[in-house]
Write a structure and sequence with these properties.
The protein is of the alpha/beta class. It is built from ten helices and nine strands. The longest helix has 23 residues.
């Protein structure tokens, strides 16, 4: 799909929920093949530190996704008082467990813990959430690595819908280590011209108005206004903020369907692809461990 050819047609809804369900069927077949060869079930280990309700919900959703494809999950729960050293020791233990193929340390951890140091302890072969510096560097240099799950899921969604990226001007609003920065690198590797905007960007509107692809990844409800969107642009909203009516993203979506060539709904767009990518990359890791 090219931007020009769809500018005057109805916008394509980039349905992450439907694609994730389709991919899960394929993953179930791959998991069965791993079990048949090794006699073992692929395992994702999730580490939850503290009692943050939202984090607990995310971990539960990831466990449910494992079950749907026939994988197992180990849920490691640690108290808020856990130290950096104790968390590192747990990561080391999971690194050394040959039955564990992927490790997820749920973000955020309590403030007194050095989260980055704990992320870096995750074995690159098990970094299925794409959080290590080494994994990021290898991805940026187009070497084998597991990409951060949300941007990797977005790239898979764009590929599935045939969005032709080469030569397009992409604006990523947000610069987090697990979303904005890897998203920009993935788009750059796909031959886009990339601008990264953030909380201190001056005249954000002018950057958005020239973008062929807009990625909202800043964590501020409806910061990006629909009237800023260029006709025919591809609009990707990676934000989610609960409201009384269900929720909104980082982009004001009212009217976007009449402007854009394609867009992700909120919810049902990017979110399902994030968890799906985590599971898919765990299956990838299990296949590598099994020699498949």
């Amino acid at each position: 799909m090219s931007i020009a050819s769809t500018a005057q047609e109805s916008a394509t809804v980039l349905d992450g929920k439907a694609l994730a369900k389709q991919i899960e069927q394929q993953l179930s077949t791959r998991v069965d093949a791993i079990k048949a060869k090794t006699g073992r079930t692929p395992i994702l280990a999730t580490i939850l530190v503290g009692e943050d309700p939202a984090s607990a919900t995310y971990v539960r959703m990831k466990g449910n996704a494992c079950k749907r494809v026939g994988m197992s999950s180990i849920k490691v729960e640690m108290p808020h008082s856990t130290t950096t050293e104790q968390l590192m020791a747990k990561v080391n233990e999971l690194n050394d467990n040959p039955d564990v193929h992927g490790i997820l340390l749920q973000h955020p951890v309590p403030e007194h813990i050095d989260e980055r140091a704990c992320f870096e302890r995750i074995d690159l072969r098990k970094d299925v959430d794409g959080v290590t510096c080494l994994g990021f560097g290898r991805m940026a240099m187009q070497q084998p690595a597991y990409g951060s799950c949300t941007p990797q899921g977005i790239m898979h969604l764009l590929e599935h819908y045939g969005i032709e990226l080469a030569g397009l001007e992409a604006v990523v609003v947000g610069r987090s280590a697990i979303l904005g920065k890897p998203m920009a690198m993935m788009l750059l590797n796909a031959n886009c011209t990339v601008t990264i905007c953030h909380s201190r960007t001056q005249d954000l509107e002018s950057h958005i108005k020239r973008a062929d692809i807009v990625v909202g990844a800043v964590g501020v409800p409806e910061l990006i206004k629909a009237e800023w969107i260029k006709a025919g642009a591809v609009v990707i909203d990676a934000g989610f903020h609960p409201t009384e009516n269900g929720g909104v993203g980082d982009i004001e979506m009212q009217g976007v369907a009449d402007i854009a060539s394609a867009y992700t709904p909120v919810p049902g767009g990017v979110g399902p692809m994030t968890i799906n990518t985590l599971i898919r990359q765990t299956v990838d890791a299990a296949e590598k461990a099994a020699g498949l």
